[in-house]
Design a protein that fits this description.
FAD/NAD(P)-binding domain; Elongation Factor Tu (Ef-tu), domain 3; 2 domains; three-stranded antiparallel β-sheet; 14 strands
Length: 411
């Protein structure tokens, strides 16, 4: 619907606008999200092609230049001979009879469209709050304090690090505890996703919670002392030009004034100039186990498929994975074929299993993780990374066998 109408979290007219972090998380295939990315590549994902083309240095993660990323995808879509882009708001789900439809309106589905979906499914949609981290200008950092390093890596590293000693950390926590927060609106409920908690919510769970989370200092020795600091704030490059950095894991619901006051207590950020401050937005999703088939078709209206965060996954990579599967199955439905159901020992299949097989009474959005996979059959117990590598090899072999059997080839 952009640019006719923008959601509270969006500001660019481009498609595929990244509103939170610019990171697609771990790149190594031995991690669950790294495996999911590799599966998407093998299935011909446009999003992964864009990410690989526009990546910026981020250590062992895959991060992108968000503007180049969005422009790459927008150009591919707008110039595709079989695609017509219509820029207007859709306020209700079209009736059946026009072939397969895909609804992928998350994370901020507008109220009229959400009401239409709730009426169709017979289920109230659920909502939680997704958070956006601040971005700082590189030339406003005090580089006599900030140092470059990636965790455990030799060499210069891809992250900028702001070290805190015990007293500085205590002062930061005290200020964070007293800082003003944006009040929830009357219709809102405090229901955050566990994998994307605001820093002030993490702090409320204990003074050291942040030191074991986004401010973990392990493996990041300060070159001035040769030792790990007491805590550290990491900054990740936003764009290839290196002019702006994202405060890693610093999602927040503090007021803008409070953010500037509190975050400038962090060593190296005393004169920080913020290109964007943190915020929190609502995310709408369905109760997948009640609403969705494993093909992502809506149970009581099989010509309609859901994709993206609306399905109940969390994260950029997971959301685009749902889009890829929905797109493949929409084509199959249009050709009179049944929708595909991926093997559950693949990352994509494991995510679908979470969406459709979880007890609906306890359903919550989830990132991909190896806990969603069936238990591996191992002759001996392997170290963690080797277990991940074994799962990846099993998953990719299973995906190849499935694609060969279904004669499924990348577009």
């Amino acid at each position: 619907m952009k640019p006719v109408r923008f959601s509270p979290a969006h500001e660019s007219p481009l498609l595929a606008e990244l509103v939170c972090s610019n990171s697609l998380r771990a790149a190594e295939v031995s991690s669950a999200v790294g495996l999911l990315k590799e599966e998407l590549r093998r299935l011909g994902s446009l999003i992964m092609a864009a990410a690989d083309q526009t990546q910026v240095p981020a250590g062992r993660a895959l991060a992108v230049d968000r503007d180049l990323f969005a422009r790459f995808i927008t150009e591919k879509i707008e110039t595709h001979p079989a695609i017509t882009v219509i820029r207007e708001e859709v306020t209700e789900i079209p009736p059946p009879g026009n072939g397969p439809l895909i609804l992928t309106s998350g994370p901020l589905t507008s109220s009229p469209l959400a009401a239409s979906l709730a009426q169709l499914t017979g289920e109230e949609h659920l909502a939680f709050y997704d958070a956006i981290a601040p971005i700082v200008a590189a030339d406003s950092l005090d580089m006599s304090i900030v140092y470059r390093a990636s965790r455990y890596d030799d060499g210069p590293g891809d992250y900028l690090n702001c070290p805190l000693n015990r007293d500085e950390y205590a002062a930061f926590i005290a200020a964070l505890r007293c800082a003003d927060k944006v009040a929830l609106k009357e219709f809102e409920e405090q229901k955050y996703f566990e994998g994307c908690l605001p820093i002030e919510v993490m702090m409320e769970r204990g003074e050291n919670t942040l030191r074991f989370g986004p401010m973990k200092p392990v493996g990041l020795p300060d070159p001035r002392t040769g030792r790990d600091p007491y805590a550290v704030v990491q900054l990740r490059m936003e764009k290839k030009d290196g002019l702006f950095y994202n405060m890693v894991g610093f999602q927040t619901k503090l007021t803008y004034a409070a953010q500037q006051e509190v975050f400038r207590l962090i060593p190296g950020l005393a004169q920080a100039r913020f290109a964007r401050l943190g915020s929190i937005h609502r995310n709408t999703f369905v109760c997948g186990p009640k609403v969705l088939l494993p093909s992502l078709q809506v149970k009581n209206r099989p010509d309609l498929l859901l994709a993206g965060q609306l399905t109940g996954v969390e994260g950029y990579v997971e959301s685009t994975a749902m889009g890829l599967l929905a797109g493949i199955n929409a084509v199959r439905l249009a050709n009179g074929q049944a929708g595909l159901e991926l093997p559950n020992d693949t990352a994509l299949g494991a995510l679908i299993g979470h969406l459709t097989q979880t007890d609906p009474r306890h359903f919550q959005p989830s990132n991909i993780n190896f806990g969603l996979f069936p238990a591996p059959i191992l002759a001996t117990k392997l170290p963690k990374k080797q277990r991940g590598q074994h799962r990846a090899e099993t998953a990719l072999a299973s995906l190849k066998q499935f694609c060969d059997a279904e004669k499924l080839e990348p577009a």
